[in-house]
Each structure stands twice: as structure tokens, then as C-alpha cells.
Amino acid sequence: MKQYIPTPSPHTHGSLSVARIMLTVWLALLPASLYAIYLFGWPVLNLLLLTAATALLAEAATLWLAGKDIRRGIGDGSGLLTAWLLAMTLPPWAPWWIAVVGALFAVVVGKQVFGGIGQNLFNPAMLGRVALLIAFPLEMTTWVSPQPLFSAAAPGFLDSLTITFIGVPNIDALSGATVLGQMKTDLGRGVPLEAILPGMFTLQQGAVGEMRGSLGETSALLILGGGLFLLLRRLITWHIPVAMLGSVALLSTLMHLIDPARYADAPLHLLSGGLMLGAFFIATDPVGSPSSPRGQLLFGAACGALIYIIRTWAGFPEGVAFAVLLMNAATPLIDHYLRPRIYGRDREGKPLDYSRGAFARRLERYQGRRP
Amino acid sequence: MRLFRFKGGAHPDEHKVTTELPISRMPMPARLYLPLQQHIGAPAVPVVKVGERVLKGQLLAKASGPVSAPVHASTSGVVTAIDEFTAPHPSGLPVRSIVLEADGKEEWGDNIVPIDPFKLSPEEIAKRVGEAGIVGMGGAAFPAAVKLNLGSRQRIHTLIINGGECEPYLTCDDRLMQERPGPIIDGVLLMLKALNCERAFIAVENNKPAAQSALREACAAYPGIEVVGVPTRYPMGSEKQMIQTLTGLEVPAGGLGADIGVIVHNVATAYAVQEALRHGRPLISRIVTVSGGAIRTPANLEVPLGTLAEELVKFCGGLSETPQRQLLGGPMMGTSLPHLEVPIVKGSNGVLALSAAEMRLQPAPQPCIRCGRCVQACPVGLLPLEMAARARNGKVEEALDYGLMDCIACGTCSYVCPASIPLTQYFNFAKGELARKRSEAQKADRTRELARARQARLEREAEEKREAAARRKAEREAKKRAEQAAAEQEAAS
Amino acid sequence: MHAIVALMVLGLFLGFLLGMAAKRFKVESDPLVEEIDALLPGTNCGQCGFPGCPAAAQAIAGGAAPVNVCPPGGRSLAEALAAKLGVSFDASAMEEGPAKLARVDESLCIGCVKCFRECPTDAIVGAPKQIHVVFAQACTGCGKCVEVCPTMCIEMFVPPTTLPEWRWPKPQNEVVARAA
Q1: Which of B198, B195, B182, B137 shows the shortest CA–CA distance to B163?
Q2: Which of B157, B331, B409 is nearest residue A12 as measured by Cβ atoms?
Q3: What would the pLDDT profile of B99-154 be if each residue is shown by its tens digit?
Q4: Which residue of chain C is at minimal alpha-carbon distance from A117?
Q5: Residue C5 has pLDDT above 90, yes or no
Q6: Model pLDDT for residues B394-445, shown as the tens digit of each residue
Q7: Residue A246 confidence (pLDDT)
Q8: Is CATH 2.60.120.920 the right assignment for the domain spanning B23-303?
Q9: Number of separate domains in chain A
């Protein structure tokens, strides 16, 4: 007699699926991506598409090697999202091989080698970016100035293909440092902030994005908008973004009050670099961040602190990628110690004791409310 | 009244299509199948024999032990068998049941006598509730008398009547509250007397405004009873979450509501208490919602206990299409049935036949992306993703460490999981593994004891043999010496 | 040059220390064997291939036998042994068939008491020339009675699962393999 296998409850389901989550996050990134295409021209589109294509091919290849179902593995959209986020942190006119190597590293080493989706310890996009940064520092720090689409200096589409695949001979003439990069070099030489910032950075530039930087660095406003969209759709929770932005704001305000000439204030820090992108899209990546609300607050705060420390005192001008990777490593520890309080138990895990202490008082207060 | 919010929860589509349909009486079927175990605790023991004629409301099986409940005849007729029959259980395994062939006369026994129950003492009330076979009608089926008796041991300051009915589709409690509020309030007053308690809250979810107003009208004369509207959120009807919502207090882990002075009873249980004490009628019928996309005409039926589910479906016009799933209970926690030939028992509140579309049938599960939605959804504050990962790898003790035994199996985590991971099944599996290990360990201990006892027995027997041999040897020697002595004496004389 | 010498000296010195520690702190007596023996059923049924439980305990402690060598002990015993030895053990890989019990076919039983004497837990009741019966709660499924019965009237059977014993099965694995 065939053993009847019962179907377990529940016999209904919510409407969310992994593919839907990934698609919605990608949609939230779209405004900033489109703006970046406008700001830096067609090469950006090449970069985005190239990174995405490489990532998908790499993922298909590794899934095939691992004997897993390729269609499901690609279909959940996580590879595409990783690639898109990686591309958003690349220099806009990066050559094609940067995109390819980055995507390969991110997908193969950052994700599939660990066991595929859900198993990676580190954020794959950040892993890819850091690998590129360390291996190819020159290409990764060549920030071209904005060449808005349809303006006189912007390259046409065919020219963009040349830029991406062959290179730009006079790229140095067109590029310069980002705000953070300039600050690091000049502050190191002892130049005070009042001399560095004018002409380099205004709040409006930072918010809207008409400045040098990677695709996700430029328009803080659009990224913030995308992030708020995700919050409203309940795809991310507020804990990590608020903690991260809050800790950067706090530290930068503190240091600015101590020495305004050396330490930039909070608005500059919040609007420059990849902080907004990191707070809403990168640090909130579910696989590498803690699962409990308290853990997420700690994670976000520590990420923010690390970012500020790296930006101000360490060797790199921008620290989002490093901070996120470091905190990814700490996530298992955070998850182990910071667990939510279970119903009917206290913070230590022991059953609630209503015979004495705070709970007894609560019980008495309740009983006292009876008529 | 100030309400508190419980953690997590979800809001599944309500599908309360039968909320406007009045209760219709299901005609008595030809045969009834009454399992001896329709409750939590020890199965009842039959007191009738095969072939015996019984009257409606007659005791068929008595409670065995302190946590048990009796079974009564839902109609008059002849007991044709006391045998194994399919249990309303996900396994489809059989349970010992009494098969009753109805004679169509519906003759009540003469023990069914209405009285004024408020003249009884609290202990008497609890005793009669137990004798009437009343168990928790919200689905838990815990013997109600045991709960009422807790009032004598502990100070109970609040009685909560659970009119939550948070499961989608089910409207049996809703209709009961709308159509029979008076008897329900009567039952509540009786329960208050049994518990020596003065305050009762009837908690009804806010998606049942008609029920709320009907009850408010019925209890207007009683200041100790208050109807409270609670937010519509699954699992509001869960006892622990209900207590938290109304009082802000949490039941201590491993404890009962009575430990903090609160007792919760389902609204249909209150109705059954009133039936039993005022009219003398034991628990022999209940309201059941038959609903779902595959049912031709959904309805709320008053069903004699022991009726087969397929009879209910037939009465509702049969199946309009082949259902994706047939359930007893609601879609969040109900049991899926292999077929509809299972009896309606005391805790069965719904028969659903769902199509694939309304079920949102999920594809095969994907790997966990650690999104944490299950953590946000869990009303108990557990970490379902961690527990499931450990259960999957066989590390059930670690899952226990994460709070496995606090899980109320509400299914909210599985409901929200975007990767369609069957989390609740992992936890049920893990709990089963722990139980299996415990029973295996007990068996191993028993085996060691038996083996040792056997060794002892063998040694004892060997010892006895040695002693017997030694004795015989001693006797032989004594005899030989005696013979020798006798021979010497003869030689001497 | 200095570095090479320094590291060499350091290495030798630390190696010497380790050697001394290994000799000095070595655990002489091995209570492990007794502890393992205490976990085993103690019925000496021989299904593991060793002559009795103490011998099996010795082998398990020494690593000559795997932790799942004892069939009556089942998965829970294997896991307990693995925990004691500190080795990892994949319980789900273990083929655990349902527990078997012995049953006497009463029509063939001649009452010779041979099985009665053989049973390590005294699970068979019956007197000479009387039908023997296996007391299911004491039977461990070791199968020794089957071997000695002269009329081959004892068989091993799988008792059907009853409702209280039923457990939820484990959900299917999530890694969806490529349809080969």
C-alpha cells in the first residue's frame, strides 16, 4: 500500500516571491540608473548591460557545473541584481574588461562558490568591487566629469562603444577626482576644507548629482527616493538605513564641531560617495545582514561608523564596500547574540516570572484595573 | 478599552463568503462515526456494546482519567460496530470509533432535563460540563471542565471568550454570535460562576461588526461582561496572542493562561456549556462552515457529530470542480484530507475544498535568502529561518535551543516566505524527531533494564543450582559418613 | 641568517614543549570504552558483528567500528555515540528501516523453550510444552530467536504505525537538481 504523504499546512500563501523582490529592488534602482545614463552618456548603458550579461552567463555556467536547475537559478533575478549593483559602483566610463572581471568575480567567487543563493557570507557585488579596486586601482579611480547626454561634448552611441571596448586616449583630460578623493588628498597636504570645497561641491550638486563619481554615487536624491520606495513596499526595514545614516551623521557632526577645517559636516558625508546606495541597497542585502531588528540596528550603526572612519582616517577615500564586507563577516556573531525576545520569556530566555519583579507589578496593575 | 499589539502576524485574504448565510440544519445522516478520541487527552472508553440500542444524548463512552472527555450519541439508533475508522488526522490513519446506525426517531434519553443552573455550585457546574463531553470548540479540543476546575486552584481574574475566528473562510463562530447571542451570554455567565470570576471580555475581530452588535445588545444588562473589538490580524484567535492583545500580559513559556489568572474559552464552547447546563443536552452537534472555490453552494451548517465530511459537501451541492486540496479546518492550520470520508468531530470547524488559484499553490521551495520576513511575521518572536536550517540538517537539539517548543505552529512564517519554504512542516518534523528520540531513549533504557534483569535472573538460577548441588553434596557426604559410622559400629560390635 | 637561526631554535623549542606535554598529560586509562558500553543496549545480540556489546564498545572507542554499527540502537544511539566521540555524523544519510518486532506463529509453535532461553531481554513468555508469545514492548528486534527456532515459526515483522506514533515527514530538499 503506498504510504500516503500528507500535505502540510498552511494551504495558502502570501503574494511575495524571490523574483518579485529582486525585480522591485531593480525597479527602485532604475531612476538613478537612467539619470546616470543621462549624466555620463551611452557608455554607462554599455557598462550596465555588459555587467548584467556577464553575470547571467557566469551564473548559468556555474549552475550547470553544479548540476542545479539553471532556469530557476537565473529566474530568481538575484544574479541580475548583483550585477546591477556592482555596475552602479563602477566608474562610468570603465573599460569592458573591468565589467567582465568584476561580474565574474562577484558571481562565481562571491556567490556560487559558497553554495549559491542564500549561502554567501559576503555581499557579492561589494566583493567584486573591492577585488577590482585592489587589482586595478588606476581604472577604478578614473572618474570622468559629467558629459550629459545630447550635449555637445557627449559621445554618440557608436563613440560610446569605442569608449567601452577600446578606450579613451585623452581620458585624463576629461576626468578628475571625486569630492571625497579630493578631500583625502588635500586634507593630507594640510589644506583646510574652506579651500577645497568651493567649486568642488555644493549641497545641490550632491543631492541632484551633477558631479564626478560612480553611477550610484551621483544622485543621492534619486537613490533616497528608491530607498523610500522600498521601505514603503516593505521590502526592506528601516533599521539598517536609519542606523547607518544616523551613525555617519552623528560622527560627522561631532567631528565637524570639534574641527570644522579638517572634518566635513554631515550633509556632505550623507550626500557624497556611495553612502545612500550602501544604506538602502547594499547593506540591506538580506543574506549578509542580521535577521533580528536589534541585530540590524547594530549592523547599520557599525557599518556607518566604519564608513566614517575609513573615509576620514584610512587610506581610501570611500569606505562603503569595505565597511559592508567587514560587517558581513560579523553578522553570524551578531545573529548568535542578538536574538529577538521570545513570547513568554525574558531576554535571557527564561520563562517569565510573574511572582516578583517588573512582571509582578505589571500583573498587579492589570488586576487593579478591574472594577 | 486599551488594547495591545502582538508581534508579527499576517493578513491573509479573508474569503468570508459565508458570513451572510444563516445556519441551516444538516439532516441526520444514516450512519454516524464517533471516534473515541475527539479531544486532547486519553481516549474515552466505550460503555455500550455492539448491537445495543441507544437514545439521543446517551453516554456511549466514558472519560478515562483526569484529562479526557466522554462521547455521547448524536441521535437514537443502534451501535453497529466499535472498530477502527479513518481519523480526521493528516496521516489518514485509523482511530477506534463507535459506528451508530440512526433509526430516524431522534428519541432523546430521559436524562435530558432542563434545570436552573445558577443554583449549582461552581464545582457542580464544572462537573456537569465535563459529563457533557464539552471540549474547546475552537479546534484545540481541550476538555473544558479541566480548564474550569483551574478556577478553584488559582485566582482567575479575567475570562476571555474567544470570538476571533481569524482563519480565512470560516464563519461558524461569526454566525453563532449573530444568531444566538443570548445563549452565548448565558454560557459566559455560567463559566464566570464556575471560575469564581467576575469579569469577562468577549473578543471579536473587527471584521465581524454584526456579531459585535448582537453580542453587545445581549450582554447590555450584565456589567461584568464587555464585548471588545480586536484588530483583524492572523493569528488573533490564538490563545496566547489573544491574552496579550487584551491584557498586555504574556503567558509564561511552558505555562498556561491560568498562571497569570486568565482563562480563554471559545465562543462555541460557551454556547455548548449553556446547552448542557440549562437544557441538559450533551455536546452532540456543532456549527461547521463548508466553503471554498470548489464547493457549489457554500453554507454554515449545524451538523450532528459523527457525520462524514462527504455528506456535508453533498448537502452543499457537491464539488463544482476537482479541488486542489480538501481541508478540515481553515487554510492556515487545517489538516488536508486524502478523501472526504472522515467524520466531523468536536473540534472540526470547517470543511474546505480549495481550487489551486485561491490557494496560491506554490512551486517547489527555493533556497532561503535570509530575508527575515519570517522573523518579522512570527507572533512568538522566534527565528524560523534558523530553526528550519537546523531541522533540515538533523540538528534538532539546536533548533530546540532557538525556541522550537515555543512555536505555536500557526503557519504565518510559511505564509510569508518568498522562497515558499515549508517552514511549519520543518518545525512539526523537528518536534516529531525530538519525540521519537525521547521514546527511543526510553526504549533503550528499558532494554538495558530488561537485559540486566535477565542477567540477574540467570545468575540467580545459577546460584540456586550451585546451592542445590552443594546441599545435595553435603547430604551425600553426611549420608556417607552416617553409613561409615554405622559400618564401623557394626564392625566394632 | 639570524632570522633562520632564530626561527629554527624557536621551532625546536616549541616542538620539544609539545612533545613533553603529550607525554606528561596523556590520559592513561580510557573511561571512554565504559561510557560507550553504557550507551549500548547490552543485549549482546551480535547484529553488529562483534561478540557482544563490550567488544563493540571497544571497537567504537578505537575507531574500528563506525558509530552507526548497532542496528537496534538506531539513529538516536548513533547520534549519541557521535556526540560522545566528538565526531560528526550525518544521521540523515543513515538508512533507518522501521523497527521490526518478532512474532510467533502459534499454529507452528511446539513449546520447546529454545527461543525463550535465547532472548536477551526475556521478551518471550511461555513454559515448556506451552505456546510461546513475544511480549512486544520488550522485544528489541535483535532476531536471535528466529535463528534457534526449530520449526521456523518466528518471523520479524514491521508493526503498523499507530496514530499516536505518527510523525510528520521531513520536507523535500530545496536544492532543485537539473532534470538529468
Answers
A1: B137
A2: B331
A3: 999 998 888 887 767 778 888 888 889 999 999 999 999 888 999 999 888 877 88
A4: C175
A5: yes
A6: 888 899 989 999 999 999 999 999 999 999 999 999 999 999 888 888 888 8
A7: 96
A8: no
A9: 1
State yes or no: ipTM above 0.90. Answer: no
- Residue B131 one-letter amino acid: E
Q: Is residue A310 part of a domain?
A: yes
Top-confidence residue, A121 or C80: A121
Minimal Cα distance from A291: which residue of B?
Answer: B372
Say if the Cβ atoms of A69 and C176 lie within 8 Å.
yes
Q: What is the CATH number of the domain that holds A256?
A: 1.10.3430
Is A343 in contact with B10 (Cβ distance < 8 A)? no
Mutate: best of C35, C53, C67, C76, partner B, most B CBs <10 A: C76
Kindly list the domain boundaries of chain C, sorted by start residue. 31-87, 101-160
Q: How far is B14 from chain A (nearest CA, A)?
A: 11
Residue closest to B181 by CA, chosen among B146, B216, B221: B216
What CATH number has the domain spanning B362-464?
A: 1.10.1060
Find the closest chain C residue to B440 by CA distance. C76
Task: Name the architecture of domain C101-160.
Answer: 2-Layer Sandwich (3.30)
Separation of alpha carbons A348 and A354, rounded Å: 15
Which residues form the domain of A178? Answer: 18-337
Q: Give all strands (DSSP E) within chain C, no chain letters.
A: 101-104, 124-125, 133-134, 154-157
- Quote the minimal CA–CA distance from C23 to chain A in Å: 37
Confidence of residue C27 (pLDDT cuts 50, 70, 90): low
Of B331, B268, B333, nearest in space to B302 by CA: B268
Chain A residues inside the 8 Å CB shell of B422? 8
CA distance A118 to chain C (A): 11
Total Cβ atoms within 10 A of residue A357: 11
How far, in Å, CA of B482 to CA of A349, rounded?
Answer: 82
Q: Does a structural domain hold residue A301?
A: yes
Could you tell me what percentage of chain C is helix, strand and coil, using 3-state DSSP and rounding each to the nearest 5?
A: 40, 5, 50
Superfamily of domain C31-87: Electron transport complex subunit B, putative Fe-S cluster (1.10.15.40)
Nearest in space to B316 (alpha carbons), one of B333, B334, B336, B296 = B296
C6 has a pLDDT exceeding 90: yes
Residues of chain A with Cβ-Cβ distance to B196 below 8 Å are none
Contacts of B448 in chain C (CB under 8 A): 41-42
Over pLDDT 90: what percentage of chain B?
69
